[in-house]
């Protein structure tokens, strides 16, 4: 029972650490519009997303353009 609990805890901790994301590029299109690239890493693959963002005051509203 102890081994199963330790193994489950180890597996859960690896799953929590394995998926990391970062914003790799921000390009200004015009005065209030930006394109942002975000990459994420899973256990077995890395994938990215391109976002189209509109700046409104102190906030940015983003919509996903495509997955890479």
Automatic annotation (TrEMBL):
Residues 1-18 form the signal peptide. The keyword Signal applies. Keywords: Signal. It comes from Sorangium cellulosum (Polyangium cellulosum). This is Secreted protein. It comes from the Bacteria.
């Amino acid at each position: 029972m102890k081994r199963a609990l330790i193994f489950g805890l180890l597996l859960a901790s690896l799953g929590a650490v394995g998926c990391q994301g970062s914003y790799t590029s921000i390009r200004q299109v015009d005065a209030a519009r930006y394109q942002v690239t975000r990459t994420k890493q899973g256990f077995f693959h890395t994938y990215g997303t391109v976002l189209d963002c509109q700046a409104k005051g102190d906030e940015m509203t983003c919509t996903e353009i495509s997955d890479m």
